[in-house]
User: What shape does this take?
Amino acid sequence: MRIRKRTHVPGRCLASLELIVHESGTQMTTNSKMKLPKETKRHCPTCRKHTTHKIGVAKQKTRSATRPLSRGSTVRAKARGVRSGTGNKGKWGSKPPVAKWKRKTKVTKRMTLEYTCKECKKTHQIKKAIRTGRIEIGEKVAK
Assistant: This one.
């Protein structure tokens, strides 16, 4: 069963989402698209006034690049000396991870919007990333 829905997303823009409702009752979004203009007027904290900003999408980084010493990371475990040695190591034991899950849980990725001030050339990001399939900025599409 497919439902078309218009929802409000932070950043004063409407995104059209298509929901797929499974027999189990769980909902998954597909084909979600967000249209944004190339530039907009926003408050620049550096200039301390409203200026025109160019909108862009931040490059996605891997978890290891952004937080290499976060809890549960292999780099942190090696640094603490947990991974090496013999015997039952729990998480670092011989049991392999689940090779193939039955259903993919997330169908979209989070995207962070970047606003570049045209006067001082400083870049600011939104506080919370938007989960959407793709973002269209002007004519350019970011997936």
User: Anything to note?
Assistant: The chain has two helices and eleven strands. Residues 35-80+107-142 form a domain with the Nuclear Transport Factor 2; Chain: A, fold (CATH 3.10.450.80).
